[in-house]
């Protein structure tokens, strides 16, 4: 609770009594770190990382600017999501969220034309090795398509030593690969607006749709067995959601309507609920929670797992698992042999 009290103090513009800079750095909360007045090795490391982030963002968006123009010229609906676009929306600074790629949200029906644009601009669907970019095998491409909402990444080499490669991920759904419900991408991509990052004009999602996409992405991160094993439960997930709500103030009626149309109300509720558990801001979040509360939404709380068959109840309180000193060790004891096999398969191919 001392940690959360310190986080809440920072969010309210106050300096916390406890030094939590090491925890904020570990959880990737660079915005909260930037609010600390006392400098130490963690705040300085975060400042350095933010500078490097901005350099990489400028390079990525300069390389991808012709892609955005080509999509516009061809009338291909798209939106840039996550990464620098989200950092700009949430924190007012494109460098305060660490990211290693550019994520595009596209309609599956446009994928052939999209891949042709990427190939025509020098992108290769593969992985980075000591020998450069090596194309994926057909098996790897098929696995990625079958079990993910993304295509395998497209990569282009640059001449910038601080950002030697630009990685573009094509997201074909706002939901994860295992989801039985698929997003209506026509609806999603009808809700876009113009934006600009580092001088590159682009399309991004509208406020309410951007919040939905953010919540779905973070719900996946907080519930995927593979991602929990790999990254643990991170405070930055709930920082992103809370500060998005605080800065952007999505329209509640529009948000509720879109959630119902996309059948994602429970997932958005889950994310807003836990953002409120962290920041304790009923004045901001209670109206949204009251409007979005459903029996299914309540049922998802204190559980993990993306598929119904693998969903389990946590046996540890939220705050304790959020700041557990050995979350991976604890989480390993929660897994079944089937869970472990799934994680190992994801490790080999993702």
Molecular structure report:
This protein is α+β, with helices and mostly antiparallel strands and 350 residues long. It contains 18 helices and 10 strands. It has helices at residues 2-11, 21-26, 30-34, 41-74, 83-91, 111-120, 138-147, 185-190, 207-223, 225-231, 235-248, 252-262, 265-279, 282-292, 295-300, 318-322, 327-332, 337-349; strands spanning 78-81, 102-106, 124-129, 132-135, 154-157, 165-171, 192-197, 200-205, 303-304, 312-313. It has a 6-stranded mixed β-sheet with strand order 1-2-6-5-3-4, with helices on both faces. The longest helix is centred in the first third of the chain and has 34 residues, at 41-74. It is globular and about 55 Å long. The two termini are 36 Å apart. The mean pLDDT is 93.
**Helix/strand structural class:** alpha+beta
- Rg over CA atoms, rounded to whole Å, is 20 Å
Could you spell the SSE succession in H and E letters?
HHHHEHEHEEHEEHEEHHHHHHHEEHHH
Regions with pLDDT < 50 over 5+ consecutive residues?
none
Please tell me what the overall shape is: globular
| Major beta sheet summary | 6 strands, mixed
E-strand count:
10
Read across the widest sheet, the strand sequence of neighbours is 1-2-6-5-3-4
Overall average pLDDT: 93
Question: Helix count, per DSSP?
Answer: 18
In terms of DSSP E residues, the strand content is: 5-15%
Helix content: 55-70%
Q: How far apart are the termini? A: 36 Å
């Amino acid at each position: 609770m001392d940690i959360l009290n310190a986080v809440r103090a920072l969010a309210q513009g106050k300096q916390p009594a406890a030094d939590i800079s090491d925890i904020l750095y570990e959880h990737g909360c660079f915005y909260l770190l930037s609010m600390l007045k006392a400098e130490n090795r963690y705040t300085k490391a975060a400042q350095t990382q933010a500078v490097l982030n901005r350099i990489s963002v400028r390079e990525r968006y300069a390389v991808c600017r012709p892609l955005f123009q080509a999509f516009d010229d061809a009338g291909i609906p798209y939106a840039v999501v996550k990464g620098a676009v989200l950092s700009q929306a949430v924190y007012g600074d494109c460098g305060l969220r660490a990211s290693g790629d550019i994520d595009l949200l596209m309609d599956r029906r446009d994928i052939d034309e999209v891949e042709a644009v990427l190939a025509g601009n020098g992108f290769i669907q593969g992985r980075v090795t000591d020998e450069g970019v090596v194309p994926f095998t057909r098996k790897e491409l098929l696995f990625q398509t079958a079990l993910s909402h993304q295509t395998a990444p497209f990569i282009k080499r640059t001449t910038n030593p601080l950002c030697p490669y630009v990685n573009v991920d094509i997201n074909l759904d706002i939901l994860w690969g295992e989801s039985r419900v698929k997003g209506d991408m026509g609806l999603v991509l009808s809700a876009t607006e113009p934006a600009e990052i580092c001088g590159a004009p682009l399309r991004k999602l509208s406020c309410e749709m951007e919040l939905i996409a953010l919540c779905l992405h973070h719900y996946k991160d907080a519930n995927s067995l593979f991602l929990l094993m790999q990254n643990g439960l991170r405070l930055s997930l709930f920082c992103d959601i809370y500060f998005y709500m605080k800065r952007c103030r999505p329209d509640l009626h529009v948000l509720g309507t879109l959630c119902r149309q996309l059948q994602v109300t429970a997932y958005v509720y889950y994310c807003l609920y836990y953002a409120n558990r962290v920041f304790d801001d009923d004045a901001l979040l209670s109206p949204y929670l009251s409007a979005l509360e459903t029996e299914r939404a309540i049922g998802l709380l204190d559980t993990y797992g993306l598929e119904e068959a693998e969903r389990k109840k946590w046996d540890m309180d939220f705050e304790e698992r959020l700041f557990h000193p050995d979350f991976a060790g604890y989480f390993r004891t929660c897994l079944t042999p089937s869970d472990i096999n799934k994680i190992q398969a994801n490790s080999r191919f993702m």
